[in-house]
Amino acid sequence: MALSAWLRQELSAAAHPLLWQPDLDHGFLHRLDVPSSGLILCGATFSGMLTLRWQLDTYQLERQYVVVCHNLVPAELKEVVAYIGPGSLYSRKSFAGEGGKPASSQLVALSHASGVCGSYGVLAIRIRTGRRHQIRAHLLFKDHATATDAKYAAKTALVRGL
Question: What pTM value is reported for the model?
């Protein structure tokens, strides 16, 4: 069941009409990509959604993530600053490099592991801008694709497994 359908099942239309508004994304302001887990931000009322939107737009909310990525991450890699844009007009993938919108991701290497399956890093990442697939695109840009990411990791990395 879709999360928006579950919310509509749990909360009444009379008290929460926003959840029935597809043009307003059923109140959803922020979500992680499907293969991820974590925060989903949704306003159940119009005033709640607008308050949350204001907090997001004025950087009142801080978004932090823990990510497992391929390859050992050098300690000096503290920030990735690169423009994020779509690969093409119809692409659902984002790429870091020239064009697109400015984006910044702050990184802290928490741990590393190496073995027969390869080398991995565990990163704490804080983003401010929140572009589509920003973390995935920034890590790929620095040759540290997110682990088990079929959309962004090289096929050879996926074959290695975790």
Answer: 0.75
